[in-house]
Design goal:
With 429 residues, this protein is α/β, with parallel strands linked by helices. Helices cover 52% and strands 16% of the residues. A hairpin with a 3-residue loop joins β9 (392-398) and β10 (402-410). α2 (81-114) packs across α7 and α6 runs antiparallel to α10 (353-365). The protein is globular. It starts with a helix and ends with a strand.
């Protein structure tokens, strides 16, 4: 019996020693992985530090070159014509360098500004909270989260101040109270892409909101990008430009919107450009349909006289229209490998949030839009065609100054979420 007991003890001891060795190996593996993670973290910190230092130097260079460019321009005007010709090349190169540095200095300034911002996220959906944290975590903002009506009420009663708040449509009933408690805080209404369901809430709160973002609940990548871009736009007070939604440094093509007869050529050039970059014909054709509507709006609907009345809205679309310099907009397009985009802007800023709501309501209720809707401008006609043929449509408006409509097309067919309406954003200064 003793021999049997000794054998069992020995077996258990051997098994225990094996377990100890396995645990030791696992511990060593964990230590190794931890050291790799720490090294990776340090490397990321070094990259961020290096990036910040590089952008700071570029910003300093821009700051020093800008007055030099202005001084050289003044000096050039006082020089004899023959000397001007010799210096012109240097002036052109200097102006080109300043132009190239401008986007980088703007990005640097925006990133620096974000780091002092306090942001409130009122969002009950934990998954959407995680997406927002991912989008905002690297910006340096201080983020507070309220995930229920009770928590949002408590935040509003706390006396905390915020620079920007994202309020989900599920908690939108507190928008009036929010506006009363925090009247100067910038507010973004965050809705789903189910536009018919969101419209009643949007119309109810329209007087209190100036920024709207709808999103696909299942489209994580696009939502992360859009939340970060929205923060950038609202904090920087620069809402215009398709570049903000695309990979930094993307090459943007642009053409002035001069006349109705120019539309076909501009769209043809856009399609040729998309084709060279490998954009599928189905997407290019959708972009062409949207571009046609946007250009028609900019030419016939947007131009207003000094009294704010439409100049060409009453004309048949077959009537030729030539725009003078003060009426001309801009047609722009770009591809960054993930998205294709087209935008048209006009210098009138006559498009209003209520126009958007009225057209969406008519389109989704199945009734036809009224072509004579008063005050229409910028993106009125064909709104249903524009939204239904795009994956995202962004409306940027500075009242009386500029309207810009940007349509985006996802180049990855696998990322298409079935059964959901296209998303739209609306920003107004």
């Amino acid at each position: 019996m003793n021999a049997t007991l000794d054998s069992k003890v020995k077996d258990r001891t051997v098994a225990l020693e094996k377990k100890t060795e396995e645990l030791a190996r696992s511990y060593n593996d964990l230590e190794f992985q931890n050291s790799e993670l720490l090294a990776s973290h340090r490397k990321i910190e070094e990259l961020y530090s290096s990036k910040d230092m590089t952008f700071k130097k570029l910003n300093d260079l821009y700051t020093s070159l800008l007055p030099l460019t202005q001084s050289l321009d003044t000096i050039m005007r006082s020089l004899p014509a023959d000397i001007q010709a010799g210096v012109k090349g240097t002036q052109t190169q200097l102006e080109h360098s300043v132009k190239m540095l401008l986007p980088m200095t703007q990005l640097y300034s925006t990133e620096q500004a974000m780091r002092s911002q306090r942001v409130l996220l009122a969002e009950p959906d934990r998954r959407q909270q995680a997406i927002a944290k991912m989008a905002l975590g690297g910006t340096g903002v201080t983020l507070d989260i309220a995930d229920s009506l009770e928590e949002l009420k408590a935040v509003l009663a706390s006396g905390k101040m915020f620079d920007l708040a994202f309020i989900s449509s599920e908690l939108s009933e507190l928008i009036p109270q929010f506006r009363k408690s925090l009247p100067i805080t910038k507010l973004v209404f965050m809705g789903t892409s189910n536009v018919p369901a969101e419209l009643p809430k949007l119309k109810a709160h329209a007087p209190l909101i100036s920024n709207i973002v709808t999103r696909h609940p299942e489209d994580r990548t696009f939502t992360v990008k859009n939340v970060a871009t929205t923060l950038n736009k609202v904090i920087s007070r620069d809402i215009f430009g398709l570049e903000k939604y695309m990979i930094w440094g993307v090459e943007v093509q642009e053409r002035s919107v001069v006349a109705s007869g120019q539309r076909a050529k501009s769209i043809e050039e856009m399609q040729e450009y998309f084709s060279k970059l490998g954009v599928r014909n189905t997407i290019s054709d959708r972009a062409a349909l949207v571009s046609e509507e946007l250009l028609m709006n900019a030419i016939y609907d947007a131009p207003l006289n000094e009294d704010g009345k439409a100049l060409y809205n009453h004309l048949p679309r077959t009537t030729a229209v030539e725009l003078d310099v003060t009426q001309q907009g801009m047609f722009r397009y770009a591809v960054d490998g993930m998205l294709a985009s087209v935008s048209v802007s006009d210098p009138f800023g006559g498009f209003r949030m209520q126009i958007l709501f009225d057209y969406l309501e008519r389109n989704y209720s199945g009734t036809s839009a009224d072509p004579q809707l008063a005050g229409k401008g910028g993106a009125g006609r064909g709104l249903h065609l524009i939204t239904e043929n795009s994956d995202l449509v962004v409306f940027n408006v500075k009242s009386g100054v500029q309207t810009e409509v940007i349509a985006f097309f996802n180049l990855d067919p696998k990322s298409k979420v079935d059964g959901l309406n296209p998303s739209f954003h609306f920003f107004q200064e």
